[in-house]
């Protein structure tokens, strides 16, 4: 670990967000064999000002960080750390796109989706939404089987944001299902116009 690298890690927690962002990019571009491991250790910290930039930096690094992130997700019994791992996976998807998101990352998000802690599983929904259309079937299957209303609403919102036309039928059926939870039906009804807007926006930018 060089002095320059140490300086970048120090800069990673600087109060100035521009300096933090610059450090993330430089760490990703000039990383060595210790960089990802050191960031993973930062994710374990209780201090959110240390943990959050490490999560974002792992997202900038991308697919190479997936396996260590998932390993920590699986081995930790701390829901805060697990949530941070899921956020890091989401950052990888946002920064590098679904095509760069490996199967190990999907497996990690599936694990988090079934986690008993609501913060972990709802964060997993957000991450799966960030991966995008390849995760639609997994989200729909979970939506159909879960009895967790909060999780169901999160999935509905994720589907509305994905801009995948296949979600239209799913949300329409749910909105018209009189046996469904009232809040779920209302959420599906409200999500349909947002989904349509997202589809139109995506079509206009394709």
UniProtKB/TrEMBL annotation:
Keyword match Oxidoreductase: no
Keywords from the named record: Antenna complex, Phycobilisome
Molecular function, one GO term: oxidoreductase activity
One Gene Ontology cellular component: phycobilisome
Top-rank lineage group of the source organism: Bacteria
Gene3D superfamilies given in the database record: Leucine-rich Repeat Variant
Transmembrane segments: none
InterPro entries: ARM-like, ARM-type_fold, PBS_lyase_HEAT
Pfam families: HEAT_2
The name this protein goes by in its record: Phycocyanin operon protein Z
Source organism per UniProt: Roseofilum reptotaenium AO1-A
